[in-house]
Amino acid sequence: MIIHFNTTLTISYNLPKFCANATWNPVAITFATSAIVGTNPYGIFIDTNNTVYVADRANSRVQIWFNNSATPTSTISGGLNTPYNLFVSDNGDIYVDNGYANNRVDKWALNSNSSVPTMYNCGPCFSLFIDINNMLYCSLYNANKVIAKSLNTNLNIWNTVAGTGTAGATSTTLNLPCDIFVDNNLNLYVADTANNRIQKFGSGQINGTTVPTGTITLSHPTGIILDFDGYLFIVDQGNNRLIGSGPYGYRCIAACSGSYGSSSTQLWVSYSLRFDSYGNLFVSDLYNNRIQKFFLVTNGCNVTTSTTTMSSGTSMNSTQSVPLLTSTDGTSSTSVSFSTSLSYNLPKFSAYATWSSNGVTLFNTSTIGTNPYGLFVNTNNTLYVCEYSQNIIQVWLENSTIPIRNISGGLSSPYAMFVTVNGDVYVDNGNANSQVDKWAVNKTAGISVMTVKAACWGLFVDIYNNIYCSQYTIHQVVTKSLNSNSNMWIVAAGTDCQGSTSNTLYNPRGIFVDTDLNLYVADYNNNRIQLFLSNQLNAITVAGTGASSTITLSGPSGVVLDADGYLFITDTTNQRIIGSGPNGFRCLVGCSQAIGSASNQFHFPVTMVFDTYGNMLVTDDFNHRVQKFYLTTNIYSTTINQPSFCPSTTWYTNAITFANSSTAGTSVFGVFVSINNTVYVANQQTNKIVIWYEGSINPDKILSGSLSTPYDLFATPLGDIYVDNGANNGRVDKFSLNSNISTSVMSVPNICPGIFVDISNTLYCSAFTSHQVVKKWLNDNVLTSTIVAGTGTSGSTATTLNQPIGIFVDAKFNLYVADCLNYRIQMFPLGQLTGITLAGASAPGTITLNQPNGVTLDGNGYLFIADCYNHRIIGSGPYGFRCLFGCTGIGSSSSQFNQPVTLRFDSYGNLFVADRFNNRVQKFILASNSCSISYNQPTFCSNALWYSNASTFASSTTIGTLPYGIFINGINTVYVPNRISNTILSWPQGSSTSTSNSYSNLSNPYSLFMSMTGDIYIDNGYLYGRVDKYAFNTSNRVTVMNVNGSCYGLFLDINNNLYCSLKNLHQVVTLLLNNGTTIPITAAGNGSAGSLSNMLNSPQGIYVDSNLNLYIADSANNRIQFIQTGQLDGTTIIGNGSSGNITLNYPTGIVLDANGYLFIVDSYNHRIVASSYYGFRCIVGCSGGGSSASQLLFPQSMAFDSYGNMYVTDRNNSRVQQFTLQTNSNCSKLFSYNETL
């Protein structure tokens, strides 16, 4: 009788209890043939319910037999490739080796049809096992080791629990390990196949002991399992037999003939064995391509016969035997060494920090030897240098000429080192000694703290005292806690095998771990920087191959971070250092990428570190030196004012004269405004520089010197002034801050009508007569320059210039050139000699230029151009190019120019222009710069007045009869629908000539509205029952709203809700754009004409304020209705039903100013009325209906331009009238544009 009973521990596999005389039938039955399990089946598993699982390698699947079935009852596949083995957990989850091609173990949850990766490893797992602490083990046959990871976390971190990764026969090594088994005491048993032994590794131990097998000699054992009493059962593959042990030692229990074969009593290169709950043996018989079953036939004991089976279900939480210490509170009882102090430097840099391009050699072969590699600089600026050919670490105090310490003795080619806060030095000693050594302060010998398999090309100790080693030849980064006495480590990155996937590395070098324990790896042969987030084995590529919008890397060897987490990379085989910042990646030093030994060149730079000042130190390996590059600028993100303007920004078109010929001289050319709003003018008549501090009317300072006809000048944020002195002296001069004496800083061939200093302290000159732009770096002592644009010969190709004048260099070092006689603006990207035409000749969709002289950019990168021979200033924006000033032609009035040449912004957005042949500097005051609305909303004082006599802006010959709608956008382009021709007419600012814009299937448009992005919305309800949208500058129509009639008013609020007033339906409807429907909802009115609070009668003009309150010209009710956001009932704020001081007669239009005061088109009273602090008043058309300049006849709608001028569609006079703002003073909110500053 066989008695089954369960113990308190529960496991998923069978551990039968056998008597000493247990025997098995020598004649096996074939449980499965190759037709079912394929050829060479390896893995087999039997759970406590006697469900049988077999890994069918040949068909990349797992076959499953439930309930003693003779044929498979289930199959799992999909994503598997040649699975070697498997294990089933106590809850029915199936773990399957998928390492042959995919380098991982997959988990198939109970009853799931798909798998998820559980562990990443390098190569197939010839055996899998899950212990009672829920640790998953994998036997890596090809890597000669066993690895394990906890399944209690989602972290893809595993550690090596047996073997070193190198084949060997010592107590710490394995040679082609196959099957594994872990008992309840966490002892690991390994079938160490090529060593012909079974190794036992005590829990947490890396030294194994060989299990003695008595008189039995093993030959290539592959399979191993234990019974309940801990006796071993072994597949002795080389002897084609099964071995079992018991109280009387080892014996053959099946296939004992001593010869291989295919009979039922023989095996031929079998692999694994497993028990069912009855003690029957299942064996995978590889070369016979079958699974054999040997029945237990005798199991009688002198006591009550029993077979003990441990049932499934154990679930125990456990930490790893060697935990990686992290910042998670309460996760470990281990005493964690934690430091908020850092031993290395993390400088904080501005977005545009620059370093000297020429390095200073700190050490060469005479001081440090021929092969420096690793560098470390602590927070005291003590420098540590690894020299691997001499097996030495040298330590140098800041500015010292001799080392204060030499670390040597027992080292073998050290590549890297790391110094902790307490001064301990951790040194790579892995090349020949397979260890990392610690040299404590003042100690003369090192001690081993970590066993490694190869040299550590990078070392790092994080804030929790975990040490990391980058093993170049093993393609891995490994880590261990320095708070543990164990030499065991776990894998932090990489899978032991080279690869380019997210979990693999290919010859990793430099490493860096931030304070959040994120690991950065210079993945050398993958040409990328990998970021492994804390405790993750799948990386994100942050730079190089596979990373979008970064920079191309070639063999990166080093990586460090600054205080803001930006990357700095030693791009070794590109011979340069790369840095990142908020504007992306850029080259910092070695940017020629040419191999060389000059001070600005490298020959395979490998390691880079910062000192406390932000200076950069680099080991220049093949030049056998350590170079130091000084931080040169770390203050300013720009050297010139670049205000950010909105799409609808406007300036007053009448300028004030900032300086005339008495101060600026005749034929004024150069003007500059510094970032602190100091104004500089080059007076060519007196050969002096005239300076006004902010707010000054008269010059505060005049600089003289040996200048000759200076054309242009530039003042840096530090106060240094660079002045053209090329006409007779062939140079550019510098006046240092507060100095009255100039010095030469660059030799030039002739005049520089354009001068610029970029954020890297590089000076540029437009060499007018040489048709070139040249530059030089101001931190060196040479006067010669290099060419950055032009060939020296005039031409109009992409590589040539013709008399370049104004220049500008942006924060990304792109060069902009006013290419005067080519009538164009050219842009030369960093490092390129081929220009791109941005405006003027050959640039489609821009503007025609005539000898452009000046160019500058705003904060958004939009161009502003002094179009000299067109006597105007051009600006660009999201709506394209437009004339800003001087749009009426040559002249000397406040709105005109005579050859404007140079233009500069102050920090407020006001524009200064050198008006050359009017002998003056003009200042144009910013009028409006709103980024929230597309229309104009001026601020008016209570006493604001408009001239009563209007000018006719457009007549019936242009706009047709009975005009209704009008819209003026933020840049003062006027739009009017022509209902007769079914077109939309537009007038740019300052133009009296309209452009007729035709749109398909447009019928009788009453109203229109333009968005911030320039999209135009047009009423098309008369025949087609819709509102159409046309994207900016296109004729592509999209129906955005379906309506039942014409929209007499359209409005788009700040939340992208479109409103339409349906006069004939007595309603206002609204629709949120881009929400998947074109059907609007009711915003006001119930659809019936009436005067109740929820009713309207022939509504027309509408307006929505920034709080989403709706204002309606309720025409036939002779009132203005106010509908609060979210409400349908209105309140009368003026007109019938209100207590207002004015009577309305059929109001048709309404707008608000910036103070929220109302302006109303009081149509049947033929006037415009407005509210203010003192109530309502008539402002134009106050003498009754008529056709004179002061009269209106049934006006329909109105709009303001940015200057406060009023445009009215005078319907029955079939014209648009412009009423000019006359007075708007004594108002604190209002700007005044005609004052003298």
Describe the structure.
The protein is an all-beta fold. The protein folds into 4 domains: 23-298, TolB, C-terminal domain (Neuraminidase, 6 Propeller), CATH 2.120.10.30; 354-633, TolB, C-terminal domain (Neuraminidase), CATH 2.120.10.30; 650-928, Neuraminidase, CATH 2.120.10.30; 945-1222, 6 Propeller (Neuraminidase), CATH 2.120.10. Helix content is 2%, strand content 41%. It is built from 7 helices and 106 strands. It has a 4-stranded antiparallel sheet with strand order 3-26-25-24. A hairpin with a 5-residue loop joins strand 31 and strand 32. The radius of gyration is 42 Å and the shape is flat. It starts with a strand and ends in a 14-residue tail after the last strand. Residues 1-9, 303-339 and 1228-1237 have low confidence and may be disordered.
In short, what is this structure?
NHL repeats lie at residues 174-204, 499-535, 1087-1126, 1186-1222. With 1237 residues, the protein is mainly β. Helix content is 2%, strand content 41%.
* Topology, number of strands: 106
Radius of gyration: 42 Å
Gross morphology is flat
Q: In DSSP terms, counting alpha (H) and pi (I) runs of 4 or more, how many helices?
A: 7
Mean pLDDT: 90
Biggest β-sheet strands, sense, barrel? 4 strands, antiparallel
CATH topology heading of the largest domain: Neuraminidase
Helix fraction bin:
under 10%
What is the rounded distance between the termini? 114 Å
| Class of secondary structure makeup | mainly beta
How many structural units, i.e. domains?
A: 4
- Classified in CATH, the superfamily of the largest domain is TolB, C-terminal domain
Gross CATH architecture of the largest domain = 6 Propeller
Low-confidence parts, pLDDT < 50 over ≥5 residues? 1-9, 303-339, 1228-1237
Strand content: 35-45%
